[in-house]
Write a structure and sequence with these properties.
- By secondary structure, this protein is α/β, with parallel strands linked by helices.
- 27% of the residues lie in helices and 24% in strands.
- A five-stranded parallel β-sheet has the order 5-2-1-9-19.
- Helix 1 packs parallel to helix 7.
- The protein is globular and about 65 Å long.
């Protein structure tokens, strides 16, 4: 028998547990270790931050779902991961041993890397966690009583730009609904070299689409920008030239700001030689497997992916929802092969399908694979995207509550569209 442990229960970890359960032999066991007892649908956080959703609308109590699926559950944060001894130490003083480990922790949010950044003693809001989104919603209500300039964006080293664009336009929509948009200048500040880069060198015409949306909504932008510090009501930003020199330093006033931070691996995973890179992200091969510790796999935002290429200001590579799901499917099936005495052979496609909601419209893009060069490189926009995002939210939360990763209808639809989770490989791959 084998004991498989999934570390983390966000998007990647939860569906990892569901798919891994289907791969087990009768004698195998599965445990999920996570710091929080409830799953939160992170894509809904921008809606929570403008009070279009309450946190209870977008969370799932995992304990009864896992119990129903026969999955052991340990809701206690990891304090130390020791891959040499196959052990995880927990904050409650206990420990867990494993035969196979799947790291699905998501990131640690590096607010501390910039003075005054973030909701924990800083001066900016965040939509990275539902707690942050709740706090942002409270701050936004106070802001609306005394409108002032707004700054939204993503700082240097950030790797998840989509939510920044989403929140920017959702805010803009809500300000119009409240009839105060005319009193609120809006600026988008980003580390990206151009609008719509997204850490991916664009997808289709995301540059043209997003620039057009910003012009149409009277939003100014600053690209290749580095946030130096944030003070109450003031953000100091450097605009960086292509050669890396600072071409201008600006002090931007604001009454409300949401800035996405850089990510890094969680503390228990940082500094482990061979397991993690210098930022603490887990190193994997084409089978989602760590080269030094072959019984360790990783999925999701915690995976180490090198940047697309040099940019004047550092930009990370995002790990989108469908890309993560493809990692999960490959990992589950590869561990299933190992359990049966075979070697891993499955590779994730890393295809990206993203619906970016703009409050009353939105942008959709498909990148197959997410990392160029691509077989499919397409983007479009329209009011239908907003409705599609609402439908996706309801569908995904339904899956989480049922304890399933993929329904028959989802698989059928993806097959029809030619959007797969596993690469078609030859025996020599």
């Amino acid at each position: 028998m084998a004991h498989i442990v999934v570390l983390g229960a966000g998007l990647g970890g939860t569906i990892m547990a569901y798919e891994m359960k289907d791969q087990l032999r009768p004698e195998d066991t599965l445990t999920v270790v996570t710091k929080e007892a409830k799953y939160h649908f992170v894509p809904s956080n921008p809606w929570v931050a403008v009070n279009w959703r309450k946190r209870e609308d977008v969370e799932v109590d995992l304990a009864p779902v896992f119990a129903r699926k026969g999955i052991a559950f340990r809701p206690s944060p990891a304090t130390k991961v020791d891959p040499a001894s196959n052990t995880i130490e927990l904050a409650d003083g206990s420990s867990v041993t494993y035969d196979y480990l799947v790291i699905a922790t998501g990131p640690e949010l590096a607010f501390d890397e910039i003075e005054g950044l973030g909701p924990h003693g800083g001066h900016t809001q965040s939509v990275c966690h539902v707690d942050h989104a709740q706090k942002a919603g409270e701050a936004f209500e106070a802001f609306c009583k005394n409108p002032a300039p707004i700054i939204v964006g993503a700082v240097q080293g950030a790797s998840c730009f989509g939510p920044a664009y989403e929140f920017l336009f959702i805010l803009e929509t809500e300000l119009r609904r409240r009839k105060i948009r005319d009193r609120v200048p809006m600026t988008f500040v980003t580390a990206e070299p151009y609008i719509g880069h997204l850490g991916l060198d664009g997808v289709g015409d995301t540059k043209g689409l997003l620039e057009s949306e910003m012009r149409g909504h009277h939003i100014k932008w600053m690209t290749s920008s580095r946030v130096k510090k944030v003070e109450a009501g003031k953000m100091t930003v450097e605009e960086v030239a292509d050669d890396g020199t600072v071409k201008a330093t600006k002090e931007l006033p604001f009454g409300f700001s949401m800035m996405l931070p850089a990510f890094r691996g969680i503390a228990p995973l940082r500094g482990i030689e061979g397991l993690s890179n210098p930022r603490g992200f887990t190193i994997i091969d084409k089978h989602q497997r760590n080269p030094k510790y072959p019984n360790v796999f990783a999925v999701g935002v915690c995976v180490a992916i090198p940047p697309m290429g040099p940019t004047p200001v550092p930009c990370g590579v995002p790990k989108t929802g469908f890309m993560i799901e493809s990692m999960v499917t490959a990992t589950a099936q590869n561990i299933g092969l190992l359990l049966r005495g075979e070697e891993p052979k499955h590779q994730a496609t890393w295809n990206a399908v993203c619906l970016a909601d703009f409050g009353d419209s939105g942008v959709v893009f498909v990148a197959q694979p997410q990392i160029p060069p691509r077989n499919v490189n397409w983007s479009s926009s329209g009011k239908w995207v907003h409705g599609a995002k609402i439908g996706f939210e309801k569908y995904f939360l339904h899956k989480m509550r049922r304890g399933t990763s993929e329904t028959f209808y989802e698989k059928l639809a993806l097959d029809v569209l030619g959007i797969g989770k596993l690469k078609q490989t030859t025996t020599t791959d």
